[in-house]
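Standup notes
- DV: blocked on the single-chain target, sequence here:
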Amino acid sequence: MSARTSLIVAQNDVPQAGRTILLVEDEGFVRQVTCEILQSAGYRVLEAQNAAEAMRAFRLHGKDVQLLLTDVVMPGGSGRDLARDVSAICPDVKTIFISGYPENAVTRNGLQQRGWFYLPKPFSGESLMEKVRQVLEENDPAGARAGIVKRAAGNG
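- DV (later): unblocked, structure below
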């Protein structure tokens, strides 16, 4: 995120308390920026840089996690295997896979499963928040609102 870009979250659009996202991304900068965007929208974010760290975090905080946001290709384990392991423990956790690979290549490799979604890299703060809202609100009659993130040019 550039110094000229600031994130503005409308207060009326902050998600309901208790929404937790497990973010798994091996690239530090991508993980940091994604975490900042999600936290600015009011989400609690658990960060991991690989599948092993993610499973440790999930074992400790799994009952609080509603969404797994994971890279597809990581050293030491794939996002697909991680999502399968998380789903085996808690089938209600939804997953958004993030990847720089084209969607057809990603979905061809077995990512088509109920509760699994895809967001291509690179993504904007707006597209990230739109996808997170869409996924968390799916089959949620209460329609818990996720924060609306708007990018605005600012001083810093």
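- Follow-up: Strands lie at 5-9, 20-24, 44-48, 65-71, 94-99, 116-120, 149-153.
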